[in-house]
Amino acid sequence: MNTLTQLIDTYAEKLLQAAKTAQKQAYAPYSEFRVGAALLLADGEIVNGCNVENASYGATVCAERVAVWSAVAAGKLSPQNPPKALAVTALPCALCLQVLSEFAGADLPVLVAAADGAEGGYRLFYLGDLLPQVFRLK
Ligand SMILES: [Zn+2]
Question: Over the stretch 21-58, which tens digit does the pLDDT of each residue have?
Fold first, then answer.
């Protein structure tokens, strides 16, 4: 069993539960599509995010980016304390994958909670599978 597999086994249930808890905090009066995200950092801390919609639809922010920005704003996410895994209640959009790629490599595990809500059920992807080509300035 490699390190990544051990990490996923250790944190999957806790991370998925955190994402589902965050989902309950979503502000989604327009789409009623509530999403939760939980970002595991290298130091073991978990930072949650939920989608926050706005009457001006373009101002809406996804759960994944709320989690990343919350972690950055709290001084918790940095090159020295990068993400180690992400759990979400829905597949991330490409914009969120690009934001995640700023802080994580292609091997970031992305656990997507099973749509049927089965206990402990999730699909495992890696950031590089979901976004094989990343935009880079340099
Ligand atoms: Zn998104």
Answer: 999 999 999 999 999 999 999 999 999 999 999 999 99
Rounded Cα distance, 61 and 66, in Å: 7
Q: Is residue 83 assigned to a domain?
A: yes
Q: How many structural domains does the chain have?
A: 1
Q: State in Å: Cα 120 to ligand 1 middle.
A: 23
Query: What is the DSSP secondary structure assignment for residue 68, as one 8-state letter?
Result: H
The whole domain housing 34 covers 3-116
Residues with CB under 5 A from ligand 1 (ion): 62, 93, 96
**How far apart, in whole angstroms, are the C-alpha atoms of residue 101 and residue 117?**
27
**Residue type for position 122:** Y
Question: Which residues belong to the active site?
Answer: 64
Q: Is residue 77 part of a domain?
A: yes
Residue 134 falls inside a structural domain: no
Assess if residue 123 is contained within a domain: no
- pLDDT at 117 (0 to 100): 59
Cα 7 to ligand 1 centroid, rounded to whole Å: 24
Instruction: Reply yes or no on whether the pLDDT at 1 is more than 70.
Output: no
Using the mean position of ligand 1's atoms as its centre, give its distance from the Cα of residue 101 in Å.
13
